[in-house]
Amino acid sequence: MGDSIKRLAVLGSTGSIGKQTLDVVRSLPDRFKITGLAAGNNIQLLNKQIEEFKPEYIYYCGADKTKYKNQRFINMEEMVSLSDVDIVVVATPGGSGLSPTLAAVKAGKKVALSNKESLVSAGKIIMEEAALNNATIIPVDSEHSAIWQCFEGESKKCARIILTASGGPFRGYLKSRLDEVTPEQALKHPSWKMGRKVTIDSATLLNKGLEVIEAHWLFGMPYENIRVIIHPQSIIHSMIEFPDGSIKAQLGYPDMRLPIQYALTYPERIDNQEIPRLDWNALVKLDFEQPDLDTFPCLRLAIEAGKEGGTAPVALCAADEVAVELFLSHRIKFNSIAKLIEKVLKQHRNIKQPTLEDIYSVGSWARVQALELATGVN
Amino acid sequence: MGDSIKRLAVLGSTGSIGKQTLDVVRSLPDRFKITGLAAGNNIQLLNKQIEEFKPEYIYYCGADKTKYKNQRFINMEEMVSLSDVDIVVVATPGGSGLSPTLAAVKAGKKVALSNKESLVSAGKIIMEEAALNNATIIPVDSEHSAIWQCFEGESKKCARIILTASGGPFRGYLKSRLDEVTPEQALKHPSWKMGRKVTIDSATLLNKGLEVIEAHWLFGMPYENIRVIIHPQSIIHSMIEFPDGSIKAQLGYPDMRLPIQYALTYPERIDNQEIPRLDWNALVKLDFEQPDLDTFPCLRLAIEAGKEGGTAPVALCAADEVAVELFLSHRIKFNSIAKLIEKVLKQHRNIKQPTLEDIYSVGSWARVQALELATGVN
Fold it and tell me: Is the ipTM of this structure higher than 0.90?
């Protein structure tokens, strides 16, 4: 392949990661070509992207599908399997990432994976299919990208992962104070600019729990070898401790374009002046503290669901999707997100070796269940 | 080679790094065998080491060479070239490391290099001989070991090195206050336990300048791509910035046994419970600041000598050896170490492409010169 142009399918192109993926493509025009774009609900932006990048294939899950003459409308599973697609960027939100991710690994593609839920829900199935079809899943999450980078040239045997977490906007709050926080406050993340769902998940620390599960599957790492450390500046994106006690960390400003570009150009590293460099004259200190699992029970719930395995993480994700929506629409309090997830998990009957159908049906069940239980949690 | 026992020659076995090398060997008895020991001036300790490790070859630069029956006395250059030596640990101090290091690379050995002065004085010659004879030089210095580790699996092209420095015991001092500091104060390093010479060099920051020159040779790195950052906790041992802006760091407690073991077992990493693990519950913060080149001119002098090249670093090292000795024996003040080095460098006539003979003769000249100029500097 060498320096030849890589052809990309970007799923979720109008979301935060999708837009930043196109930023990277725009700044490295000799390296990438957009073959397919898929979006969910922002037709105006998608139209602009189509005009600029002229993809041959489009997927849009809204209504108006007849406007374009130069593009073919196909579904995401078809798009990621096309022979003229080299890299699939999966940046669709929530449960919608699972099916196209699976299709992409079955087609043996290089998958730049931003969607957490697919690995959290179906990590075993996806990783097995990836191995079977020689697909490579490169994480786009800053934490997992950091871990991936630190493992380059090293063995994973007996290593330990130290996932860093900013702690979110409510780090240091008492639980009682968290009952009063609004969606607007929760959406103000101190270091990362992200989509709404993941920003709320960062405020509850549920997001960090999902990342623990994702790390478990991506790196084949036992849960007891993964720990979470709060690091408010979000400069160290994660670390690995090797069996000899040596630790490697990956650092940089919180800017998703770096892990996105790394996933797209891997194993090469390309100079891109659009991405800001760490200013050593401005770097004064890096802080660390332990996560507060009593105040932020979502982290504990997620890790427990991960350890339980089977469909427990599916129920967790689905319940969280509903809970976050309810919180954002002011229908439940911040602390009730965890309460609602816990209630759903208590009623969940785990399927230990789930099929894809089991995963979808547990997801549906948990969403309905969460909605039903929501009235009782506040 | 696999899991077979590696045979070691340890030069400088009674010094700080030599003793810690033997600690590592002691804790991993299935991996290493001591074939040769060389020491300079501590016959009591050398005798104990001979009793414990039963090497076949001995070098001692003091008088009494006839005591042992089971060991052969040979010089260091012969010892490092023996066919039954796999790894040579060069932990001799100052200028005495050059000749055996050169002999070891000429013999195509794996060289665990702790002695800074050999690369600083004769980096070009040593690296060329290493390439010619397929020798591998693995750094034992914590900073260069960190850089080596961070480069694993990565390209050196367009990378930048960020060398961390503790700042020594006098970090934050005003220059006037430095005129009053005693050798006893200078020997109390805040984070590292090291030999006397390197501890004083750490207090003046000359040591960090030598490390810049060493990094230049070891990693083929242009001087403009190497910078020094003060990091008082000595937890981050150094960093690399890659062309995409991503930074990798290597972390651990300041304990030389880790880089020593890494150099001996490379590319493997071995669990060794004797080496303390970073306690994530205790890690609260990491601080960074810029080096103060006005108060600590030795750092500037060393980097300038490195950039000048030729025999300038030779004169620097030799003048510093004398200056440190004079300071330790209370004959010059702390600030006069830099003054003396600067005076010697001003009188030095650079040989741009020195032979080994040039290097030795400039070294001798600079030592004599430093002694002569010493009376005038206080």
Answer: yes
